[in-house]
Every structure is written in structure tokens, then in C-alpha cells.
Amino acid sequence: MQKFLPTIARLFLAQIFLIQVIALIVSFNSHPEGYQQYQAQLGSLGLPGIFAPLIILINLVGGLALFLGYKTKAFALIMAIYAVALTFLLKLPVLQYLAIAGGLLLLHVNPNTACSVDNLKK
After folding, report:
1. pTM of structure
2. Mean pLDDT throughout 82-106?
3. How far is CA 33 from each of CA 4, 23, 49, 71, rounded to the nearest angstrom?
4. Angle 14-17-22 (CA atoms, 0-180°, nearest 5)?
5. Are 66 and 100 in contact (CB under 8 A)?
6. CA 56, CA 50: separation in Å to the nearest integer?
7. Spatial CA neighbour of 11 closest among 55, 74, 97, 76
8. How far is Cα 75 from Cα 83, in angstroms, rounded to an integer?
9. What are the boundaries of each domain within the chain?
10. Left, alpha or beta for 69 (phi > 0: left; psi -120 to 50: alpha)?
11. Residue from 98, 71, 99, 74 nearest 84 by CA
């Protein structure tokens, strides 16, 4: 069981980013103006519209990489930096996202988890 706890932690961290992408896609499909509303929401926070596809892409690629355990060390660090940056850019709950970043930094330090693509290469 001890061997699989880091894997479960990696999956929990990945789901934060993946569920956000799924929720955005569902809202885009359920409302004809969903994507434009998302861009406008980001614009009201001072971010240009180009950030909308970038945020979706980073969440999708980073979330999938963490979920699959592909280049875990690198993606955990990238997603930790991304989580902190997004916290201050989008005025998200600071303590919550700092906790997520902390978990990602622990994953960066200990990237070897069971059931990951990284382990298949060995």
C-alpha cells in the first residue's frame, strides 16, 4: 500500500487541472457564447484573450502528464510555478493554490511513483 500512496497523490494533483479543462469544455458546449464569456472573464481580470487557449492548453498538457506520470519531475515543477502565477494573476484563493503548489513541489522532489510512464522506460 505504501508504494501506491505517491501514485494516488499524483493522480489527485492531476485531476485538479484535468477537471478544470473538462468543466470549461462542458461550459463552452452548453452555452453558445461560452468561450467568449471565458475570454471576457479573463479580460476583466486584466489578461488578454490569448491567455484563454494558453490556460486551457497548459491545464490539459500538464494535467495529462501528471496523470500518466510522464516526465513527472519537470511537469510537477512547471505546474507548481503555473499554479502560483495563476493564483496572483486571476486572484484565486491563495492558501488553496499554495497548498497545491506545495504538493506539486513534493512530487518534483520525489517523482518516482508506481504506475507511471516514467517507470515503464526503466
Report:
1. 0.91
2. 95
3. 42, 15, 14, 36
4. 115
5. no
6. 11
7. 76
8. 12
9. 5-113
10. left
11. 98
